[in-house]
TrEMBL record:
Any one Pfam family match given in the protein's UniProt record, by short name: Arginase
GO molecular function: arginase activity; manganese ion binding
Organism: Cylindrotheca closterium
SUPFAM superfamilies: Arginase/deacetylase
Record protein name field: Arginase
Length: 374
């Protein structure tokens, strides 16, 4: 039941959406509502890919094992509620979704980001909750690193997007050359020097990018982030953006100056999502068709009519099928080595909107973890 949004009037869409919401909220949660697809009128027994398929997830050790890493971070943005993502996705039956796709699953306890509350006296105003974000992301980096070294597929569930600082640092320690697919309405390319809000969920790429000297981040001024002083960096040609539509002036300047490959919603409208993903892989696979890839999926990349329960909604986002295509294409590349999905906030929508957003998130996870339509 995925209707192309362009063909729907707003009224029709809202009617369909509210009907879906009713059905979703009364449906029994769990794998049956997910592995079957969008949830309505689906035949549940679909052909599912097998993790024995040597072409899929070829960078993971056999038997293919994924480690679910709950990263309930809220300190990168101002709203309480983004910490609920991992628990709610677990409650929906995330483990069963993954096992039904053929994965061996290691479901780790959520990382604890609240225990080491420190004084905020040292936190600069242009990097809010800096010490807490640093402590949390440092823990996450260590966890992701250790799972990758074991040959597992780290599946990080946020939390706000500041967790990307940790995921990427952990990945880069093991796979310095990882190709990064950043699916987002925003570029998250700010630094404390450029951010208007000081919210660190807008900085994961900005902090880790290998900047020119004048733009370099001074980590000695960011309490807790000492682990990044000599930490690994992302080179500008290592990352591709998909779905951008809300870009700050300095971010725009840097995307152009550094030559970062960015596919905005304009490009998706112009070329179609299939061609856009082809071009994204062409860019990342230059010189190495087997380059390992990481996908960082911010749920706010999807249109807010479909994913209302998130903090920084921007209209004109990915349609239901475009959102899935990005995830499916990442899996079908065979090179996906790790993934994260972030920015669910059920408290920022009504119950229907929250369950709709979480269901979509669960389905997107299924798609980038290898679910295919046939
Ligand atoms: Mn983001």
């Amino acid at each position: 039941m995925s209707l192309p949004m362009q063909s729907l009037s707003l009224k029709t869409f809202q009617r369909v959406a509210s009907r879906q919401t009713r059905l979703f909220t009364t449906a029994v949660p769990g794998p049956s509502s997910t592995t079957g697809g969008a949830g309505i009128g689906n035949v549940e027994s679909q052909l599912l890919p097998s993790m024995n398929d040597a072409e899929l997830f070829k960078h993971c050790k056999y038997p293919r094992t994924t480690s679910i890493i709950g990263a309930p971070m809220t300190f990168g943005q101002p709203f309480v509620g983004t910490d609920a993502g991992p628990a709610l996705l677990r409650d929906r039956g995330l483990r069963n979704v993954l096992t039904s796709l053929g994965w061996r699953v290691e479901d780790l306890p959520d990382l604890d980001f609240d225990t080491e509350q420190v004084s905020d006296a040292r936190d600069p105003p242009n990097a809010r909750n800096c010490s807490l974000v640093a402590q949390g992301t440092s823990k996450l980096a260590d966890t992701v690193e250790s799972k990758l070294r074991k040959g597992h597929f780290p599946l990080v569930i946020g939390g706000d997007h500041s967790v990307g600082i940790g995921s990427l640092t952990g990945i880069l320690r093991v796979i310095p050359d990882i190709g990064i697919i950043w699916v987002d309405a925003h570029a998250d390319l700010n630094t404390p020097a450029t951010s208007g809000s000081g919210n660190m969920h807008g900085m994961p790429v900005g902090l880790l990018l290998d900047h020119s000297e004048e733009n370099a981040v001074d980590f000695t001024k960011l309490p807790g982030f000492e682990f990044l002083i000599d930490g690994p960096r992302i080179s500008p040609d290592q990352i591709v953006y998909i779905g951008l539509r809300d870009i700050d002036p300095t971010e725009r300047l840097w995307i152009r100056d550094y030559g970062i490959k960015a596919f905005t919603m304009y490009d998706i409208d112009h070329f179609g999502i299939g061609k856009v993903m082809d071009m994204a892989f062409e860019h990342l696979n230059k010189g190495n068709p087997n380059r390992p890839l990481h996908i960082s999926y911010d749920i706010d990349a999807v249109d807010p009519l479909l994913a209302p329960a998130t903090g920084t909604k921007v209209r004109g986002g990915l349609t239901y099928r475009e959102a899935h295509f990005v995830a499916e294409a990442a899996a079908q590349s065979g090179n996906l080595a790790s993934a994260e999905i972030v920015e669910f906030n059920p408290s920022l929508s009504d119950d229907g909107g929250a369950s709709e957003t979480l269901e979509l998130g669960e389905q997107l996870i299924a798609s980038f973890m290898g679910k295919s339509l046939l």
